[in-house]
Amino acid sequence: MALAAKGAAVFLDRDGTLIREVNYLCSVEQIEILPGVAQALRLLRERGFKLVMVTNQSVIARGGLSEAGLQDIHAQLSAQLGADGASLDAIYYCPHHPSEGMGEYRVVCRCRKPNTGMIERAVEDLDVDAARSFVVGDQMTDVELAYRVGAAAIFIGRDGAAAKAARTLNVPVVDDLLQAAHWIIERAGQSQSGAQKS
Question: Is pTM beyond 0.85 here?
Answer without folding.
Answer: yes
